[in-house]
Specification:
With 131 residues, this protein is α+β, with helices and mostly antiparallel strands. It is 27% helix and 23% strand. The chain has a five-stranded mixed beta sheet with strand order 2-1-3-4-5. The radius of gyration is 14 Å and the shape is globular. It starts with a helix and ends in a 10-residue tail after the last helix. The mean pLDDT is 97. The chain binds tetrahydrodeoxyuridine (THU). The site of tetrahydrodeoxyuridine has 14 residues, from helix 2.
């Protein structure tokens, strides 16, 4: 399933709000609940670099902290010619809250896009089923 234009626009709009004084590498995200609510995410960096939070996790933590648990789509936007993919830490957090088959749309500049899924991003994932 492809991402609706509105979801893509929310992820791209986040690029302007990203707090990236160190990397100057903005990332935007839009996490869509099964009920259709949109949670925007952006990366938030810190002078203590390791404390920086990625756009994907910002969106997930915003949604989960509002009581959301059911998601249907994630869009990730980079200000890059080719789409960027979530980092390893974010893939694990995405896998915690999103079904393996959930679609993930990766966007680059000028509408370049790549469609993938949670399980393609994190094969052989460790989940609660392993505990
Ligand atoms: N970043 C994200 O927000 N999401 C990703 O999927 C990859 C990396 C951020 C972290 C840091 O603020 C900047 O991009 C450069 O690594």
């Amino acid at each position: 399933m492809t991402a609706k234009k509105e979801w893509q626009d929310v992820a791209v709009a986040a690029l302007d709000k990203a707090y990236v004084p160190y990397s100057h590498f903005p990332v935007g995200a839009c996490l869509v609940t099964k009920s259709g609510k949109l949670y925007q995410g952006l990366n938030i960096e810190n002078a203590s670099y390791g404390l920086s939070n990625c756009a994907e996790r910002t969106a997930i933590f915003k949604a989960v902290s509002e009581g959301e648990r059911e998601f249907q789509h994630l869009v990730v936007a980079g200000h890059t010619p080719e789409p960027i993919a979530p980092c390893g830490a974010c893939r694990q957090v995405i896998a915690e809250f999103c079904e393996p088959t959930m679609p993930v749309t990766l966007l680059g500049d000028d509408g370049v896009q790549f469609e993938t899924t949670v399980e393609k991003l994190l094969p052989y994932m460790f989940t609660d089923k392993d505990l």
